[in-house]
Amino acid sequence: MMGDDESDNKPFILGDFSSYRDLGLSGLSMAPSFATLSQPEVFRSIGNAHGDSFRDFAFPSDEFVPSDPLNFGTAKQENPFDPIGLSTAVHYHQSTPDPPEVPGGYLEPAYHFLTQSRPMTVFHTLVTYFHANNVDYTVKQDKFKLKCVSYNGGPRLSFNVRIFTIDSDSKQYAVEFQRRSGDIIQFSEIYRGCKTHLEGEGYTAVTSSKQMTVRAFAPPPLDVEVTVDQARDTMKCLVQMAGSNCADVKAKAVEALAEMTKDQDVKVQQMIVADGGLEMLIESLDSSYEDVHCSAVTGVANLTHDREDACRQVLDRSSCLFKLVNSETPQVVRESARAIENIGCTLGKSVVDGVFRKHLDLLSYSKDPVARAYATRLVQTLGI
After folding, report:
1. Do 338 and 377 have their domain in common?
2. Which CATH number characterizes residue 27's domain?
3. What digits encode the pLDDT tens for the residues 272-310?
4. Cα(274)–Cα(277) distance, rounded to whole angstroms?
5. CA–CA separation, 334 vs 95, rounded Å?
6. Which of 151, 132, 146, 120 is nearest to 52 (CA)?
7. DSSP string, 172-213
8. pLDDT tens, position by position, 124-155
9. Rounded CA separation 138/172 (Å)
10. What does the alpha-carbon distance between residue 214 and residue 237 come to, in Å, rounded to a whole number?
């Protein structure tokens, strides 16, 4: 099972993020105080992009559009599969093959369940769930497999979902989740959410007799009020750590500093901008380490929201931000686009020079629908 992560050229399918602020991300300003450096359930940003490289999920040469049919093996469909609107039900052909059998007979003991529902029905329902919960995924049609990535809990979580045939005569199938990298608690929450969703949809989801009972635990947020002076002391420590030559130390410091930017206290944000926090984030944009600049660009995007002083400070070093527009990591491109939109909306047409417009045009034609939406909205807002 562990060896079944070969790369492929299947198209990259991105969830529809139109529920955010009508693609306005200020609606995600629901994160708790930075005092809980644990991961909140809802981020002000789309997600803090710390983690492994996204090389397996690089942008494709073309997009998987609703008019493209999703065929499993030699299966045929009467109607196309709709990964964007998800408005079209999957229709089945009699020749639709069963999923493959379990290689070696081994399933992840804590992360699979059995079902007697049609495999393609289950597959479609999983895609619908991921679509609604902002999980990016690629489809490996012949293996009934989804290669998934989520940033909803902050750092990058990579996992696979596959459907296997357990007994073709009794039509019993297994749905297996396999974490590839990232936070185990976030992974467990996604697994339980998918399983509960399938059960709620009326599908038979019988827990395997071999399955262990696992309860993921996340400590509750600290119910304390942090003063601006305390926040300043914390930030100064993080800025010192972020200057480390050790990549791991620097990455953790920038991630925690980006976490602070989600604090909704205006005085805390002013302090971060004025006392060196934003400057460190801008410097970190230039880092060659992806896990550093991923977190940094989220912090920059958070601080530039309706803050003229922050926007001008970033604009003075805009080359660090603009180069991330060409990143192969979708999350980096999305957050770069969000920061650029914030700067344009806050400072107005006066900032749209040749370089700014060049990168705005690149985003307008991005293969990522979220980045494209940011750019489109900025063009419409400024009337350019």
Report:
1. yes
2. 3.30.310.80
3. 999 999 999 999 999 988 889 988 999 999 999 999 999
4. 7
5. 41
6. 151
7. EEEEEEEEEES-HHHHHHHHHHHHHHHHHTT---EEPTTPPP
8. 888 888 988 878 888 887 789 999 998 775 67
9. 25
10. 36
pTM for this one? 0.63
318 part of a folded domain: yes
User: What single-letter DSSP state applies at residue 46?
Assistant: S
SS (H, E, C) 127-182: HHHHHHCCCEEEEEHHHCEEEEEECCCCCCEEEEEEEEEEECCCCEEEEEEEEEEC
Q: What are the backbone angles phi and psi of residue 13, rounded to the nearest 5°?
A: -110, 125
**CB-based contacts of 69-78 (< 8 A; 24+ apart in sequence):** 70/139, 70/141, 71/141, 72/96, 72/97, 72/120, 72/123, 72/141, 72/142, 72/144, 73/97, 73/141, 73/142, 75/120
Residues 286 and 349 placed together within one structural domain of the fold: yes
Q: Is 251 a domain residue?
A: yes
Task: Identify whether residues 340 and 201 lie together within a single domain.
Answer: no
Q: Which amino acid belongs to residue 237?
A: C
Tell me whether residue 216 is in a domain: no
Q: Specify whether 246 is located in the same domain as 154.
A: no
Q: Is 373 exposed, middle or buried (0-12, 13-18, 19+ CB in 10 A)?
A: buried
Domain range for 258 is 228-382
- Quote the DSSP letter at residue 72: -
CA distances to 221, 236, 259, 317 from 37, in Å: 9, 16, 7, 28
Pair (199, 316) in one structural domain: no
- Domain CATH for 253: 1.25.10.10
Query: CA-to-CA distance for 38 and 92, rounded, in angstroms?
Result: 45
Interstrand relation of 136-140 and 145-150 (parallel, antiparallel or unpaired):
antiparallel
How far is the C-alpha of 178 from the C-alpha of 121, rounded, in Å?
Answer: 20
* Side chain identity at residue 246, one-letter code: C
221 inside domain: no
Structure tokens at 384: 């350019």
- Least Cα distance to 211 among 170, 244, 175 occurs for 175
Residue 50 pLDDT more than 80? no
Distance between CA atoms of residues 358 and 321, nearest Å: 13
Q: Is 243 in the same domain as 278?
A: yes
Alpha helices by DSSP H, 17-141: 119-132
Domain count, the chain: 2
